[in-house]
């Protein structure tokens, strides 16, 4: 291996002078060229964008792929530009086991038939989840990662180069200030002009890149909207799949001795527009109420409780429930809500 000793010594000397220069700036014994307030605001916004984009990217990946081992594996496959492994989701594993159990118990039995139907539903849910993860990766995660690996790395590189140019400029100012001879002053002024020109040019390049963060935010907004729309479609598909399963289970005739017929839980609407579930209604408390005796329930304003009719003869009070607490509550203090 060839070593350029002169270059090595020169680089070491430059690094040492940089350390000394930065130390003097920290101590306030050396002049430091300051950038304008607008540039500093742009740089701060860039740092904030990088910070939160990285956090949001990590959180989104954790939501889509909860298993950290799978995330590491996907990252490695992306780096070597290989296709990610095709894994079954937990829902699909559950569906396979349910279908296998149903076939083992016998498709002709009520329980076996139900297991097969629920297993098939889990399979469809798993496929929908897989499609959602693929779409979310394409519309949201990939653009954010490209931004961090591309534009943001370029900004960091140019800002680092700008800092180097600033240190060169300040070093030239110090040399000019310390020059004693006429020749030394002329050389220092020439170096200062060159350093100032390079610093100004690099500052302009970096400023243009920092101003491009606004365009990046607009692009991220579009990606966020697509991600939300993908979530809407995914949850709508899951809702439809579960509704189909509910209808299929409701049509099954359970012949197992002692088994009650399947009845899906469906809220019922009352004439007043509120919703009743198992005889209970939700109600919001309009103002505080102190129980008069042990048969009543004390209320606090804005809390939500469950209520039901006591009897047809009782017109002024309802039976209220708050967790394990029960007691009569006056109707006048309540506003009925929908489930």
Describe this structure in words.
Residues 278-339 form the SH3 domain. Keywords: SH3 domain. It holds the Pfam family BAR. Belongs to the endophilin family. With 339 residues, the protein is of the alpha+beta class. Helix content is 64%, strand content 10%. It has helices at residues 5-27, 37-64, 68-79, 90-105, 110-178, 182-211, 213-251; strands spanning 268-269, 275-277, 280-285, 304-309, 317-322, 325-330, 334-337. Strands 1, 2, 3, 4, 5, 6 and 7 form a seven-stranded antiparallel β-sheet that branches. Helix 5 runs antiparallel to helix 7.
Question: What's the tally of helices?
Answer: 7
| Morphology | elongated
Given helix and strand content, the structural type is alpha+beta
Order of helices and strands: HHHHHHHEEEEEEE
Give a quick rundown of the structure:
The protein has 339 residues and is α+β, with helices and mostly antiparallel strands. 64% of the residues lie in helices and 10% in strands. It is built from 7 helices and 7 strands, in the order αααααααβββββββ.
Write the layout of secondary structure elements.
Blueprint: H1 5-27, H2 37-64, H3 68-79, H4 90-105, H5 110-178, H6 182-211, H7 213-251, E1 268-269, E2 275-277, E3 280-285, E4 304-309, E5 317-322, E6 325-330, E7 334-337
Antiparallel strand pairs: 1-2, 2-3, 3-4, 3-7, 4-5, 5-6
Helix pairs in contact: 2-5, 4-5, 5-6, 5-7
Protein name: Endophilin-A
Keywords: SH3 domain
GO cellular component, one term: membrane
